[in-house]
Amino acid sequence: xxxxxxxxxxxxxxxxxxxxxxxxxxxxxxxxxxxxxxxxxxxxxxxxxxxxxxxxxxxxxxxxxxxxxxxxxxxxxxxxxxxxxxxxxxxxxxxxxxxxxxxxxxxxxxxxxxxxxxxxxxxxxxx
Length: 127
Hints:
By secondary structure, the protein is of the alpha/beta class. It is 35% helix and 29% strand. It has one domain (5-124): Transcription Regulator spoIIAA (2-Layer Sandwich).
């Protein structure tokens, strides 16, 4: 699927596709409630009329306040979150975060696996 938009927000790169977005947060960032507002703005801007899946490509080291996932899971048209990890430490962190998310939440070793899952999840939820 072709990328529609790329946004470098300083602390992250956001890649917007037709049915999903990929977020690649930069080293040393601490993800907190303020970042929810940025995500919600992207959802409202690009996905107001359809469902989406959020993919986090964790190629850098950063920290996530897991309670943010509770707020993110309230986004009505967000079907799920996929986390792409490249180390066992990042996988363990994602497994911990999964406990705080109330929708589909999967962990992958490659971005391609995440994209395939996102596509399947979206296809299974078409109305």
